[in-house]
Amino acid sequence: MKAGNEREAQRRAMELLTKVVLEQRDYALWDGSALTAMTDMVWYPPYMRDISHCHNCMEIGLCMEGTGKIGVGGVEEGRPFCAGTVVIVPSGVYHSQQNEGESRTRWRYIIVDERRLLRELPSALRRVIERFLNTTGRGGVYLHECELAARVGAIMDAMFECKKRLGEDAAPELEAQLLRLLATVAREPISSELKMVENPLRVQPVEPALLFVSENYGMELRVGQMARCCAMSESHFRKTFLRIMGVSPLEYLNRFRIHRAMHMLREGKQSIQNIASECGFVSVATFNRNFARYVGQSPSVWRQMHG
Length: 307
Prior knowledge:
Blueprint: H1 2-19, E1 22-24, E2 35-43, E3 52-54, E4 58-65, E5 67-72, E6 79-81, E7 86-89, E8 95-100, E9 105-112, H2 114-120, H3 123-134, E10 141-143, H4 147-166, H5 171-187, H6 207-216, H7 223-229, H8 234-245, H9 249-267, H10 272-278, H11 284-295, H12 299-306
Parallel strand pairs: 1-3
Antiparallel strand pairs: 2-9, 4-7, 4-9, 5-6, 5-8, 7-10
Helix pairs in contact: 3-5, 4-5, 6-7, 7-8
């Protein structure tokens, strides 16, 4: 009877493994700094299922709004997140984010080129961070409703405020704050003390444009329309959107459309031409080019692997 139970457990484990789909999503590296990108991403329901994926860089995420679960190691079922949760995922570690509920979800991300970072650090700090990456941080760090999460979140808030205030001139301050963040995590034991983190930062100035995109992404949209939703001139809106969201309005729109297209491709019910049209792309060629840019594969190849 025991042997039969073990065989059944093995069968179920193999069945689970065959259903797990893994994906590589690489960031474009920047020659100027180990700090590759700082982005602000907002999702609106209905939410699609995220696929377990990894990156070529370290991803440091701070949840600003929303709830859901974070899965690590190629398994989608994971730990809960809410406002204040911090997740640090090194390069090559598979993870997924399943947003839940009826309200929007917002995360801030700091993307770090680990190899370049370690090459350029002073020796004493390099030893501390390298030891952290090879031990505690090797499989990812999850900080939820604890003092350390609040401290890391405060540093990330300061980084985004600095970027907002200084723009392109903020690089020295941002790199210094990044080192402080990593050293803070590397030096502190990972605790589970309960402490709810309140975060007042919001995206109100561009919120009408984000909602407009989520409701009309399948139509031909212009930045001027998004600006009018926010009662701004187009030039002021572009600057404000880039400052708050970390990407241009058109870049955000393209990312949103590609995420919706991935959801439709996984369902496998429509032709690629119909999906391209429904997601707002003027032609299949334009859709293919944008999809390959963000995902690294053509829509047809991606569908064969993940559909």
